[in-house]
Amino acid sequence: MSFPKVNPTKTKAWEQLKAHFSETQSGKMQEYFTQDPSRATRFSIAWEDFYLDYSKNRITDTTQKLLLQLAEEVQLKEAITAQFSGAPINETENRAVGHTALRDFAKMRPEVKDTLQKVKAFSDSVIQGEWTGYSGKAIQTVVNIGIGGSDLGPTMVCEALQYYKNHLQVRFVSNVDGDHIAETLRDLDAETTLFIVVSKTFTTQETLTNANSAKEWFLRESSSHAIAKHFVAVSANLEAVSHFGISSNNIFPMWDWVGGRFSLWSAVGLSIACAVGYDQYENLLVGAHEMDLHFKNTEFGKNIPVTLGLLSVWYNNFYGAESECIVPYSQYLNKLVPYLQQGFMESNGKSVDRNGESIDYQTGTIVWGSVGTNAQHAFFQLIHQGTKLVPTDFIGFTKSLHGNKDHHNKLMANMVAQTEALLQGTYETHPENNFKAFVGNKPTNTLLIESLTPKSLGSLIAMYEHKLFVQGVVWNIFSYDQWGVELGKQLAKGTLAALEGNNASNLQNPSTQRLIDKLN
């Protein structure tokens, strides 16, 4: 099944959207609500325990109609079918995009099912104290060593699900900065520490450097034969893992049809299963699969990821908004934004379309944000009164996990108040003091979820995965390759050689050479 390759700017809907934007760009959302008392009901979607209110957007019925027409003309439905069918839609790498298959228990591939069983057996044995270190002591600390998708997803999920965690302490090392690994290991006991080394190729410089440092640290307390009790790997490179010294019995597989930034659903999530238990990890997968079915089967007008993706295109390509802000009102989700930054910006930061042509329209948006209410005391000033248009997602939960109603009421009151303030602006004018003026008319989406559970978190992550897919289809780009991260890696080999006093002939730029001289 071929993947669509439609230039969106050549569609009828795009031309109509341009004309529609010219007619409505000065429209005020405040007036839209006054004119249409049912607006909040019509521009909302209820699904499972999710409720999306997208009524506070600069859209009309015509806007929505034309955006849905655009989705039809770029063949979004066909693109969704192609992805879920396992077609090699990542054409530049000739790979399928199969992360949704990792959470489809009804149609699960045998190799995925076997790996999940291995994850379950291993995590259960570590949690229950059956897996012991070289001295017979139970494992107390798990250290995940990886970078990019091998770190951001598991780190974010473990942080988000702290409420459900067991007695194990789970830490993460990603940065090649030696201070990071040193601080992580400083107070650990080698006898009770387990390392999970995560790297598909097992050649990633940062991960291998940190893994070797961890091994050196461990061998100060023990001998090489004990490595089998304290090091496991998630990788596709069995030979390299074996050469490192990890037993073949301690290797969890990865597959080339799963991109790194979508890999937490695979054995890369081993640290998650250790942190919260396999059953909760499986609930995470179940929640993601339920969102997959919603995305795959629901008509576009009531489809949450499609709605969010098309709104993003509307602001990016017609209003010229370069960024999107995401503000979860839960401290547990304080690492959600860094995780989504990789997902969106690595996936859709492209300037060549699926036809191999240079693009003359805007593609990937800049994703940023923080948790509320911290964000309100940091950067909300710019969103309220700045010169930049910043569409913002607010994510809240109707129930708190620890049940402190006083705190939660204040938290949710702030979230709702911010969306109201961004919409309405100043209730009364201040002619004598323009500094107090708020024009309002700032677009927001509000997503309310019943409570933060492994299942709802899985749905939330999958929702944003499918949103970026929708963006990529409309922009006619390949969202699942990542050639842009390779050049810096290659050049780093030359700069490292120069720093180590070896051949520096590849340093052509005098600025780069001078920096090397300063560092030496």
Question: What can you tell me about this protein's structure?
Answer:
This protein has about 525 residues and is of the alpha/beta class. The chain has three domains: about 10-95 and about 290-475, 3-Layer(aba) Sandwich (Rossmann fold); about 105-275, Rossmann fold; about 485-520, no CATH class. Helix content is about 45%, strand content about 10%. It contains 19 helices and eleven strands. The chain has helices spanning about 10-25, 30-35, 40, 60-75, 75-85, 110-125, 150-160, 180-185, 205-220, 240-245, 270-275, 280-295, 305-320, 335-350, 380-385, 405-425, 455-475, 485-500, 510-520, and strands spanning about 45, 50-55, 140-145, 170-175, 195-200, 230-235, 250-255, 325-330, 365-370, 390-395, 445-450. The chain has a six-stranded mixed β-sheet, sandwiched between helices. The protein has a five-stranded parallel β-sheet with strand order 4-3-5-6-7, sandwiched between helices. Strand 8, helix 14 (about 335-350) and strand 9 (about 365-370) form a beta-alpha-beta unit. The N and C termini lie far apart (about 55 Å).
